[in-house]
Design goal:
28% helix, membrane
């Protein structure tokens, strides 16, 4: 009996020894362990909380104690750009004061003393063209006197030549004065010049017409050297000659051209021309007509 009890105890002990590792695995292995599933608590659901806005007072302590930053000094605004400087148009690139207003006033004044073309045509039987060449400086000793504007004074006397008219050609500013007979004679004087000019007697009908590059004429006659006329100068001169012949209603054969140097006075006595200047050449009549046909 005792032997059977001992044999049973030994069997149980042997079975326990065999089964104990299996029991430990079943209890402790996290993959299949019973205790591992029971020990892990189920996670509780967490409600989402919206972030709360914080005011500047709820920021960190250093931020609450720091003084507010000083505002940046205002930057000086940049000065406005100056307006563009408007400069008058330059002739041939030469800078000079703007005289457009002065020239327009001169032109308007001269038109007021210019005769109607119908009164000019047929007013003379002969037409003299006088080229006034100046080789002395205006302020030089012996040079013709000047008017207050610095224009050279030139006196023209046609009182002894009632059937002749005269056209002045020049390339420097002139202050012209005229004596005629009868005193109210119309269109006795014409002017063709590159520069500005004035006329002392301001009565209506004094001028027979004028062409001035300074007053807007596109192209005026040069002072032609009758001894050595260049082809370009001769062409322009003859074109102006024909214009004046048509203005006075005369053929070119009734015209005469004389080049004078440093003259301040010009006087006609019939067909005689008297001057205090120096005559540098003359061409007239048929010879002048032939010259302008070339």
């Amino acid at each position: 009996m005792l032997n059977r009890i001992l044999q049973g105890a030994v069997g149980v002990a042997a079975l326990a020894a065999v089964a104990s590792p299996i029991v430990l695995i079943l209890l402790l292995d996290p993959r299949i362990g019973v205790l591992a599933h029971r020990a892990r608590p189920e996670p509780e659901p967490v409600a989402a909380v919206a972030p709360r806005e914080t005011s500047p007072k709820e920021t960190c302590a250093p931020c609450r104690t720091a003084p507010p930053p000083e505002p940046e000094p205002a930057r000086p605004s940049s000065p406005p750009e100056p307006p563009p400087v408007l400069r008058p148009a330059l002739a041939d690139g030469i800078a000079a004061p703007d005289v457009a207003g002065e020239r327009e006033s001169q032109r308007a004044q001269l038109l007021r003393v210019t005769a109607h073309p119908d009164r000019v045509s047929g007013s003379a039987a002969w037409l003299d063209l006088i080229g006034l060449l100046y080789t002395r400086p205006r302020d030089a000793e012996g040079a013709p006197p000047l008017d207050p504007n610095g224009y050279r004074r030139v006196r023209i006397d046609l009182a002894q030549a009632p059937d002749r008219a005269l056209v002045v050609l020049a390339d420097q500013p002139l202050a012209l004065s005229l004596a005629v007979s009868p005193p109210d004679r119309a269109g006795a004087l014409g002017v063709e010049t590159r520069a500005a000019f004035t006329v002392a007697e301001g009565r209506p009908g004094l001028l027979g017409g004028f062409r001035s590059a300074a007053l807007g004429a596109p192209k005026v006659a040069p002072l032609l050297d009758t001894l050595r006329p260049g082809p370009d100068g001769l062409r322009t001169f003859c074109a102006a000659l024909r214009l004046w012949a048509g203005q006075y209603g005369l053929p070119v054969a009734r015209l005469r051209y004389t080049l004078l140097e440093n003259a301040a006075q010009v006087r006609l006595e019939g067909d005689r021309l008297l001057t205090d200047g120096t005559a540098r050449g003359r061409v007239a009549g048929r010879r002048l007509a032939v010259l302008c046909r070339q």
